[in-house]
Design brief:
disordered N terminus; globular; nine-stranded mixed sheet; 9 helices; alpha/beta
């Protein structure tokens, strides 16, 4: 397992879950008038019965900015992707109240893999699949010792080093021909997508209406017509990272170790748990899709793929691996469904990964059972849980947030960052920063995209 800040994978039970039910009553700092556009058009739902993508399927750093908040000109669009928010006279923001997003499931186009890349043991980028691994199904009661190697065969990535979108941007530069806009006007966009980001950032958006603890900061820059979204570490997340207990650090290792027990380096070999776990290494898929009227390009780390030569093409052949505490009581099973499956589902649903294999471990870190969760069936697993999360709320909130970003982030300038901020029980708000520490598009990327666009126009 390979961990990096752009796509935190919550592999173990380190994820913080509330002990009881979710708090339905949300409080906001300001009174925000809401327009609740409920769509009753059956075409607004996703009804592709030939795929798994069916409608029923399946940090606290408040940014202190001295820059004046702008007041954009909002247009209420009565179409797919219309939003339930408005720009009040004295405040602006996007509500996260769940009831506002209980509409028809938005159109979500089957994700298509357009490429992949690898990061080696020294975190170097390669435009290929050399880090791909192959899933080897374990016994139902495997008795894997996840503590093995933690003290002497573990190379941990420096998670204080923030890579932002750099690896995705390197992939874009190396694969421009796959992404060039079909538009030909002088003002045309450079890429034929609306948004570029990490899968992990979208996962946070999907789970926001149900999140009760962790805040987030997302930096957005519009460049050549495309909106780039990169995460900014909150002060709370930084404190958690710097003050992580030894127990939590070891439990994070357990998830990576589970991968080592279940993944082989090639289609003909077997897993080798005697090797070194190096969390610098990663294999990432790059997918394109569309959510409502938002064209998305994002990348996410992939644990492994099905080794069957007859397996479907990526991303449908990929497998996500997780670990969690063993289930001993109905209450523990219910908590798994109500809390942990939310993040598991969101993370795999977005890129089109069809199944999750979970290793359930005892308190000493020994995997005692293995269970497979099919993404298309998770909605049925949770439907009888009281006050449970709803996939439609997750997807509609994400879609409306992207609409909100489009309305706010209007200046096409790589030195301008729109910083979107959210804390539990609050609205999403934003601030604007010029030539600040939040700028994240590197000069080499700006130069490459500018020069290649200019040369294309001249040819």
């Amino acid at each position: 397992m390979k961990l990096h800040h752009t796509d935190i994978k919550n592999k173990t039970e380190v994820s913080r879950l509330p002990p009881g039910g979710l708090d339905d009553k949300l409080h906001t700092e300001t009174a925000v008038a809401m327009d609740h556009h409920r769509s009753h058009n059956p075409k607004s739902s996703y009804h592709n019965h030939q795929t798994a993508y069916r409608r029923e399927r399946d940090d606290s750093g408040r940014n202190q900015c001295e820059i004046k908040r702008s007041t954009p000109n909002y247009h209420h669009q009565h179409q797919s992707g219309s939003t339930p928010w408005r720009n009040p006279l004295r405040s602006q923001g996007l509500s996260t109240r769940r009831e506002l997003y209980e509409r028809d499931f938005p159109v979500y186009k089957q994700p298509v893999e357009v490429g992949c890349f690898s990061l080696d043991s020294e975190r170097r980028f390669f435009n290929d699949s050399r880090q791909m691994r192959y899933y080897v199904e374990p016994d139902r009661n495997p008795n894997f010792d996840l503590k093995d190697g933690y003290k002497d065969r573990f190379v941990k990535r420096d998670d204080s080093e923030k890579e932002k979108l750099d690896h995705i941007l390197r992939w874009i530069v190396a694969n421009r021909s796959k992404l060039d806009s079909r538009e030909t006007t002088a003002s045309s966009r450079a890429l034929d997508v609306d948004f570029v980001t990490w899968r992990g950032h979208l996962t946070k958006l999907l789970t926001t209406p149900y999140e009760t603890r962790d805040s987030w900061l997302l930096a957005v820059t519009r460049f050549r017509g495309t909106l780039y979204i990169s995460e900014v570490e909150t002060e709370a997340a930084r404190r958690d990272r710097e003050n992580r207990t030894e127990r939590n650090a070891e439990m994070m290792y357990w998830g990576y170790k589970f991968e080592q027990y279940t993944c082989a380096d090639d289609i003909h070999s077997l897993p080798d748990p005697s090797g070194v776990v190096n969390t610098n290494e990663a294999f990432c898929t790059v997918v394109q899709t569309r959510l409502a009227d938002h064209r998305l390009l994002f990348s996410g780390e992939v644990d492994c793929r099905d080794k069957d030569p007859a397996a479907p093409a990526p991303p449908a052949c990929y497998v996500e691996l997780k670990t969690s505490a063993e289930i001993c009581t109905p209450k523990q099973r219910s908590n798994l469904h109500r809390f942990k499956l939310l993040k598991w589902w969101a993370q795999s649903f977005l890129p089109g990964v069809p199944r999750i294999v979970a290793g359930f471990r005892d308190h000493e870190g020994v995997v005692v059972s293995v269970e497979t969760f099919h993404i298309s069936k998770i909605s049925h697993l949770i439907k009888n849980e009281y006050n449970c999360w709803k996939p439609t709320v997750c997807m509609n909130f994400c879609s409306d947030f992207l609409s909100f970003v489009k309305h706010v982030a209007t200046e096409d300038n790589p030195s301008v960052v729109y910083l979107f901020s959210w804390e539990p029980h609050r609205d999403v708000t934003f601030s604007i920063h010029r030539d600040s520490q939040y700028s994240f598009l590197p000069h080499w990327f700006i130069q490459e995209m500018t020069s290649s666009r200019d040369s294309n126009q001249q040819s």
